[in-house]
Design brief:
With 1103 residues, the chain is α+β, with helices and mostly antiparallel strands. It is 40% helix and 16% strand. It is elongated and about 120 Å long. This is Regulatory-associated protein of mTOR isoform X3.
């Protein structure tokens, strides 16, 4: 016989055949190998070769072992092994009746067995139900006993093999009772004592108990409770099982129950709960054979099954996305299209359907075609305004995957103005939705296979909308997707961006040469006029430039059109920073050129993004363009090309897209560069040649190289979003943990609550005495690396955070230990000007704001539990602020105030607005114009989301009501100060009238009633104040001056004490004070001095 084959040996001593088969198989394989070698030797004579058969995959089933004899019982068939393999139900019933065990109806005869009504193929009959139960039980025994790979091979790959081995398990049980051990190859572990056989005996017993009454009285057949009981056992396992439990043995039975309409709904519900346990559960279900069952159920029209089937398929595809091919082949995608389209279905289920469809079309062209024919684009676009944020997110991702590298779906989106509908989600209150929208727009740009003017116009609109809307989004996740999206513009319009980089470098070299030029009598041309040469409407007139030789305009090869950079590459590294927006903005005046210029500016600004991951991603994109320029520029090429270049006219602007990519020598005109000034004396002048117009080399057409572009950078946002579906999505566990009074989370939060309550109570006693107390007991002193600029106390922990240039440090005020010293990872020229503790009552975060307008939030800020600080988020809170090193006048840097109750961050500083950021949605709430012509120096909020006070550099104090529209929110201006306002404090004490405390550098302290136009109290103290701090909860304040002292007053003007010296045996005079800060609750004052010392003073000595 050939191989592979199935052999059945139904005879005594059958095991001998199995053993001999292995020997003969090895012998035959060796003979075939010898024949094969002989054929190879005689191949020249035309003898055909044969393939070597493999007997390893042959299956053998033997009735008994080598030394055993089959039973000789007159009540059993002679070929009992064959009967077990071919008629298992009949032989199982006969053997069960013959056993001397207690049965419900002991008088069942062998003759009655043949009268059991029904058909094996009809599960609604008694005989058919027994066959169904037998299949479920033998499958369960095999799945729980056999190794997974062997189970897949024998019970799932072939229906005939699976049926034979299920029946073989029965044969083993029956023949074992007659002292025979059936043998198989491959060998199976013993299964005849598995507990599930008892369930089979019970099912037979219950069936036979009904048989006499059915035969005699024609009573109605009562279905077996087997499947219902097994579902209950499975439910118990799901509900009460421990985390480290073994897989449920009922899983194969649950799949069999899916075939029954009676129990299908319950089985699907339990199966869904099982799959929700995690990827391991999905893999188990797939290994047991869930796939064909749930695939067939997609043909059902029952509405009650829709939520369950969608959930189950979402779980499957989240773990194994290769199932997409089977779904499309069987038309299963139509089921999910109908679910997604039906708005009467809850949004949670439509979200799952969107995820399933997104998985079907992911990198699978047949799936994209099928979904596009099903109008998936219009279905998704119609629901972008749904209230469910997760649905909005997955509608975007589904669209993105649908038109990814599939032009037809993209043009369906164009017809439905999909990009404009996605624009509305760029301001969505959920960051993940914004990121998904940006991702979808990015794939929209990249999905064009044939470029046209219409496609380019749309892509430019999309890119400009993205750069204008989300460049300064508060969430780094969104900005990452922005970089990924914009890279497609760079890759598809690479020539245009390379030309921009070239123009920037040329303008840079001109700026350098203007300073270094030896021609003192030469007229200098402004950067604006020089860059106008790039415009196609402008001609370069020789009469307008004195001293420029006419020989300087030459044609160069396409490779050397970039080469004029020479050795000045270092000027290209940070174009926006070196050149500034003013000079770059004049490069091209064409609308297309301005689009690419703005995109280039946007990418360059993202190079310096506060979040290092976003900055690195952006740098990969911009460096790709800069490297294109750099790799093509060699000094030798430049010199040779300039001497030997042709004097002919440049090609027409219509061909300008090929300048940087062709290889035929068609060359664009070079842009005048400053380095040519140094070479002009060496090159002969051609007085008979006039200058020609120089066309703009920035093209609105895409690169001619077609095909799929390789991304320069990628993000893991989509993969992360998909992974969420593989994890448990039910909220039961989360809710239970929150309500679990014995959980670790509950104990930690309860401890923090009690600690905070105790701290406030103890601090309240200090506050009552503070108005007449001397704040002079030194409780902490240390020296740091730089002069401290900002100090802030943690309200409930003994932590003091200090800003030290571009670093921040955290000290334990009780022990004096330094907990953290960490760099802010910002611009080296910037300095931290704001420090705040966020969420201080629970798990605290530390926020650091720098004078370049960036804000960073850190977790694990105190390095407790041996964990380094982790950057949680970072964004550009103010884009228009410049670091102090770039300005000559005094600056306030970035000024911030965190409001815990409304989760709002107010930022201002060297700008004319106050910007409010919503930390929950990670969106800009609003911009409130200050109305001042100077910087804002300090800010305070009332803590309830209403009033906000801003002190300005001109001495004015402005009060805003945030409940009003931004342009109407300024409700009061006080101009009683004449110098820089050092501090504002909206009093949070329990008093009948709302008050505002302010102080300026000239030494005048004022208290305002928010309802009146002038101050109600004034305190004049010493001149030359450098720092001011007011206690939030009690009526005292402190001021530091250049006179080497710190003075403490109460708000009634009474001087409480002055601090001039440090404590200790070698007590030294304190240095000029750079910053002051009171503890939010306790009466403790922290002072930072210019000699890099930090000291804390309390109203009571250390306990």
């Amino acid at each position: 016989m050939g191989a592979p084959s199935i052999y059945v040996y139904d005879c005594s001593n059958a095991g001998i055949i199995v053993e001999s088969f292995q020997q003969f198989a090895e012998q035959h394989e060796k003979e075939y190998e010898m024949e094969k070698q002989a054929v190879q030797q005689n191949r020249a004579s035309g003898v055909a070769g044969t393939s070597t058969p493999s007997y390893k995959n042959c299956i053998q089933l033997a009735a008994c072992a080598a030394s055993q004899i089959l039973p000789m019982n007159p009540d059993l068939p002679a070929d009992i092994f064959t009967s077990c393999l071919t008629t298992p139900i009949k032989i199982a019933l006969r053997w069960f009746v013959m056993q001397n065990t207690s049965k419900l109806v002991p008088k069942i005869s062998l003759d009655l067995i043949d009268k059991i009504p029904g058909q094996l193929t009809d599960r609604r009959t008694m005989l058919g139900e027994l066959n169904w139960i037998f299949t479920a039980i033998t499958d369960t025994i095999a799945w729980n006993t056999l190794p997974r790979d062997l189970f897949q091979r024998l019970f799932r790959q072939d229906l005939l093999v699976a049926s034979l081995f299920r029946n073989f398990l029965l044969a083993e049980r029956i023949l074992r009772s007659y002292d025979c051990t059936p043998v198989s190859c491959p060998k199976l572990p013993p299964t005849y004592q598995h507990p599930m056989w008892q369930a089979w005996d019970l099912a037979l017993d219950l069936c036979l108990a009904q048989l006499p009454s059915i035969l005699e009285n024609e009573d109605q057949f009562v279905h077996s409770p087997f499947f219902e009981e097994q579902l209950t056992a499975f439910q118990v396992w799901l509900t009460l099982g421990s985390k480290n439990r073994n897989p449920p043995e009922q899983l194969p039975i649950v799949l069999q129950v899916l075939l029954s309409q009676v129990h299908r709904l319950r089985a699907l519900e339990l199966l869904g709960r099982f799959l929700d346990l995690g990827p391991w559960a999905v893999n188990l279900a797939l290994s047991v054979g869930i796939f064909p069952y749930v695939l067939k159920l997609l043909q059902s029209n029952a509405r009650e099954l829709r939520p369950l089937l969608v959930f189950i398929w979402a779980k499957i595809l989240a773990v194994d996305s290769t199932c997409q091919a089977d779904l499309v082949r069987d038309g299963g995608h139509k089921y999910f299209l109908s679910v997604l389209q039906d708005t009467s279905i809850p949004s949670e289920h439509r979200t799952l359907a969107a995820f399933v469809l997104a998985s079907i079309v992911n990198d699978y062209r047949p799936g994209q075609i099928a979904a596009n024919h099903g109008s998936l684009v219009s279905i998704c676009l119609e629901q972008l305004g749904d209230l469910n944020a997760l649905l909005r997110q997955w509608l975007c991702l589904c669209l993105a995957r649908l038109w990814h590298n599939y032009d037809k779906a993209r043009w369906c989106g164009v017809r439905d103005i999909a990009h404009e509908k996605l624009f509305t989600l760029l301001q969505d209150p959920v960051p993940e939705v914004r990121a998904a929208s940006v991702y979808a727009l990015g794939t929209f740009i990249n999905s064009v296979t044939t470029r046209s003017e219409h496609a380019n116009n749309i892509d430019q609109i999309i890119a400009m909308t993205l750069i204008n809307t989300v460049s300064y989004d508060m969430c780094p996740l969104v900005r990452k997707e922005l970089v990924v999206a914009l890279q497609w513009m760079v890759l598809h319009f690479e020539n245009s961006f390379v030309t921009l980089a070239l123009a920037e470098e040329n303008s840079r070299k001109d700026l350098v040469v203007e300073t270094l030029s030896p021609f003192s009598g030469m007229r200098r041309i402004s950067s604006r006029d020089r860059l106008k040469m790039l415009s196609p409407n402008n001609t370069y007139n020789p009469e307008s430039t004195e001293g420029f030789g006419q020989d300087r305009i030459k044609r160069v090869s396409s490779s050397s059109s970039i080469s004029s950079l020479g050795n000045n590459w270092e000027f290209v590294r940070k174009p926006c920073e070196s050149l500034g927006h003013s000079s770059l903005g004049n490069l091209p005046s064409l609308s297309y050129g301005s689009v690419y210029m703005k995109l280039w500016h946007g990418l360059c600004s993202l190079d310096n993004d506060p979040h290092p991951v976003v900055a690195t991603m952006s740098q990969k994109v911009t460096n790709h363009i800069r490297n294109q320029v750099k790799e093509s520029s060699t000094p030798k090429e430049v010199i040779e090309t300039k001497i030997s270049s042709s004097l002919s006219l440049p090609p027409s602007p219509s061909n300008r897209t090929t300048y940087l990519s062709n290889s035929k020598g068609d060359s664009p005109p070079t842009v005048n560069s400053g380095t040519d000034l140094l070479r002009s004396s060496r090159i002969p002048s051609h007085s008979n040649r006039s200058r020609k117009p120089i066309p703009n080399t920035i093209s609105e057409e895409a690169d001619e190289v077609a095909g799929i572009k390789t991304p320069l950078t990628t993000s893991q946002f989509v993969e992360w979003s998909c992974a969420q579906f593989a994890q448990p999505v039910s909220l039961e566990t989360e809710i239970e943990s929150m309500n679990d009074m014995e959980s670790r989370i509950h104990y930690e939060r309860e401890w923090r609550y009690l600690r905070n309550k105790r701290q406030r109570r103890e601090a309240r006693e200090e506050q009552l005495r503070a108005i007449q107390s001397r704040v002079e007991f030194q409780v902490f002193h240390t020296r740091c690396s730089h002069s401290p600029e900002v100090l802030t106390f943690h309200p409930f922990e003994p932590h003091l955070a200090v800003a030290l240039k571009d670093f921040f440090g955290v000290w334990d005020c009780q022990t004096g230990a330094k907990l953290t010293y960490c760099a802010s990872h910002g611009n080296k020229m910037s300095r931290i000007t704001a420090l705040e503790f966020i969420n201080a009552h629970d798990v605290t975060l530390l926020m650091a704001g720098s004078d370049d307008g960036s804000v960073r939030v850190w977790k694990n800020y105190s390095s407790m539990l041996n964990r380094d600080p982790v950057l949680l988020t970072a964004w550009q809170a103010m884009a228009d602020i410049q670091p102090a090193a770039k300005t000559t006048t005094a600056t306030a840097g970035l000024v911030t105030k965190w409001e815990q109750k409304s989760l709002t961050l107010a930022v201002t500083g060297d700008v004319r607005i106050v910007r409010l950021w919503d930390a929950e949605t990670e969106l800009k709430k609003q911009d409130i114009p200050t109305g001042a012509d100077c910087c804002a120096t300090c800010i305070d909020v009332d803590g309830v989301g209403a009033m906000m006070a801003v002190g300005c550099g001109d001495g004015s104090v402005r009060l805003f009501d945030r409940r009003l529209p931004p342009l109407e929110s300024r409700v009061m201006i006080w101009r009683e100060h004449t110098a820089w306002v050092l501090g504002t404090s909206l009093r949070k004490c329990e008093r009948s009238t709302p008050q505002l405390f302010t102080g300026s550098s000239s030494g005048d302290i004022r208290i305002f009633d928010l309802r009146k136009n002038s101050s109600v109290s004034t305190v004049q103290i010493t001149q030359g104040i450098t720092a001011l701090a007011a206690h939030e909860m009690t009526d005292i304040f402190a001021c530091g001056s250049t006179n080497h002292c710190i003075s403490v007053y109460n708000t009634m003007g009474q001087h409480l004490n002055t601090i001039k010296f440090h404590e200790g045996f070698m007590a030294t005079r304190i240095s000029p004070v750079s910053c002051l800060s009171f503890h939010p609750y306790r009466v403790i004052l922290a002072a930072g001095c210019v000699d890099s010392t930090i000291t804390a003073y309390a109203s009571e000595p250390r306990r």
